[in-house]
Amino acid sequence: xxxxxxxxxxGMASRYGSMKQTEGFGPSGETIMxxxxxDAIRAGFGKVVFIIRKDFAENxxxxxxxxxxxxxxxxxxxxxxxxxxxxxxxxxDRTKPWGTGHAVLCAIDVVKEPFAVINADDFYxxxxxxxxxxxxxxxxxxxxxxxxxxxxxxLSEHGTVSRxxxxxxxxxxxxxxxxxxxxxxxxxxxxxxxxxxxxxxxANSSVSMNFWCFQPSVFESTKNLFSVFPKENKDNxxxxxxxxxxxxxxIKEEGGAIKVIPTSSQWFGVTxxxxxPGVKASLDKLIEAGEYPTSLWG
Length: 298
Description:
Spore Coat Polysaccharide Biosynthesis Protein SpsA, Chain A, two-stranded antiparallel sheet, 26% helix
């Protein structure tokens, strides 16, 4: 059974200022998602599931249906604020869905096979997809994984970023993910800000870029976890049900293991508008090196 790729594309990032998920960065107008899907097909994935908001559906289908027809199976899942939420628990002032873990839950009815989860606006590199597919083709229900990137390969030259720094045990299993905000490079060091202090973090630290590998068994526990989340956060309109909440429960409460799989790939993405030219230049270099054709879909 070929694994499935879930692409989280329901959100619009305020720091970027527009719908970067469907912006063209490649020489033939390819989005970053196009490169992820192309790499996933090469690695052996058999289906892509777009997690989107219903009001984005027409735009997404117009952009992807025709060019992906015959290349990979495609499904669309809608993540709305009221998905899996009791109306009595819905905060009146909430304006967006409940985060990445909630997005995964929304795919429960269309994903019955091992699957990977990625962000729509991150470039992960073919090595990451190959390693994810290899893991998913052999993994069992009590083991999930996360693709780990070197911290210094995930920074922006145009501002600070937030990264989930992975703590790993002697068996390369994830212990916990600690969210560090305001991370940036300062001279030859990588630092993050904590209050008024600057704290150095090793440049080779393994960080999460939200590239996870799961078995379908994750859906039931996710549904149970999320069932109480809106009620518990009814007064917090910014509360988000992130994937690391699911991962932490899987490790600590279910006795599961999450392998941290290192990748040699260079991550890049578009956190800020100023990142866009660098993304285009990075893609041009990969094309010049023969990693990708000038036009992905011919």
